[in-house]
Amino acid sequence: MAKTKTQFVCQNCGYNSPRYLGRCPNCGEWNTLVEETIADEVPNRKSRVSLGGETAKAELIKDVSLEEVPRVKTSLKEFNRVLGGGVVPGSLVLIGGDPGIGKSTLLTQVSGQLGSKGRVLYVSGEESATQIKMRADRLGVGGDNFYLYPETDMSNIREQITTLNPEFVIIDSVQTMQEPDITSAVGSVSQIREVTAELMQIAKTNRITIFIVGHVTKGGAIAGPKILEHMVDTVLYFEGDLHHTYRILRAVKNRFGSTNELGIFEMREDGLREVANPSEIFLEERLTGATGSSIVVSMEGTRPILVEVQALVTPSVFGNAQRTAQGLDRNRVSLIMAVLEKRANLMLQNQDAYLKAAGGVKLDEPAIDLAIAVAIASSYRDKETNPSDSFVGEVGLTGEIRRVNRIEQRVAEAQKLGFKRIYIPKNNLQGWTPPTDIEVIGVTTISQALKLALA
Ligand code: TYD
Ligand code: MG
């Protein structure tokens, strides 16, 4: 019988401590340390994984053959693209997202399509076989190669994989799976780590592709330690607004492709449908021809998002001009209005201004300045912006447009989402070649930008 002891494990980053600490010294989060029991010796440790299979040995780098990574294509092109061109056999893919966003739906659809390429085992720790069957019927998937297995015990799952010998396995979700050797609670860091290590071993030694569903925390990260994201080959996030039907699938890590890809889907009665022209989503709620609207490409962490900035400028009634801002910093708005007044001759001091970042998002970075300025000027002059224009740039106090970071990513995102033109700081044009299928205009001053954008 193995001796057991307990330790405190940070549920955010996986840091171990022999005693309780209020604050994790590793990631700085408060109240994240939880007592977990660890067996002194875990029988046959799963974390020793051979990535090249049982027969792999060291070889000279010049002898390593560079054969194409084989890809299995599903009929969801957006899904293939996010994966870097298709499903790579033997890879471990983690899909994170809010509850109810459609992870199980997406993977049920994908399973149905992969059924024509090989055997698929769908392991669910959350729903019964009947529930999954009902969903599959609604989605119109089934077939001879699609197996359902409601189970949470990893040793049973391993056994089932050995007998069934599938090419593709879905684990829905990693937080519900349980390694019986580990006494820690289901969903704890130790459990998630061991379950993932075991899945990785199964994937790599048998060349099985495993899709793992992971829940996300309130902060938006996949629940459990960062370690989970380090262990897998690919991390995808499935996001969207529960009040809207559109969903975005993004690669945030991909050992077999670029992380700049995103796929857009629409959640319908009969499942997820690909959206052929994604810019429609962002333009559809915009009133084309309305004044006081502009599109900005803003960075949310390392991810670019496109957001509509709206402004309503009206003459103030009470002498004391109002300025309100929703989702934008009011001080930033006041500053930009002062610059517009002084450097672009807009008489704004006796105007009320209401600003809004549409869709309920919060934007806070200098690169949104230009879009705010354009929206204000557009409303003030009653002159609409071109619906296929987008704007990026910081506005300085002398009216200059200052350089912003990650310009290539922003331009690529605007182009990907169907925008025809993007205004950027002129200084940002140096050092790279802009893509050709979007018109990139470099501007130096706010008055020059307004002249071009509101011509
Ligand atoms: P689900 O895939 O269960 O979400 P997750 O696994 O990420 O928690 O999807 C849940 C929502 O999707 C549910 O509220 C109903 C909706 N839905 C549709 O609108 N159309 C469909 O065809 C299906 C299967 C689900
Ligand atoms: Mg689900």
TrEMBL record:
This is DNA repair protein RadA. Belongs to the RecA family. RadA subfamily. Keywords: ATP-binding, DNA damage, DNA repair, DNA-binding, Hydrolase, Metal-binding, Nucleotide-binding, Stress response, Zinc, Zinc-finger. It holds the Pfam family Zn_ribbon_LapB. The middle region has homology to RecA with ATPase motifs including the RadA KNRFG motif, while the C-terminus is homologous to Lon protease. Residues 68-216 form the RecA family profile domain. PANTHER family: DNA REPAIR PROTEIN RADA, DNA REPAIR PROTEIN RADA-LIKE PROTEIN. InterPro entries: AAA+_ATPase, DNA_repair_RadA, P-loop_NTPase, RecA_ATP-bd, Ribosomal_Su5_D2-typ_SF, Ribsml_uS5_D2-typ_fold_subgr, Rubredoxin_2. NCBIfam families: sms. The keyword Magnesium does not apply. Residues 352-455 are annotated as: Lon-protease-like. One of its GO terms (molecular function) is ATP binding. ATP binds at G97, D98, P99, G100, I101, G102, K103, S104. Plays a role in repairing double-strand DNA breaks, probably involving stabilizing or processing branched DNA or blocked replication forks. One of its GO terms (biological process) is recombinational repair. A motif (RadA KNRFG motif) lies at residues 253-257. GO terms for cellular component: cytosol.
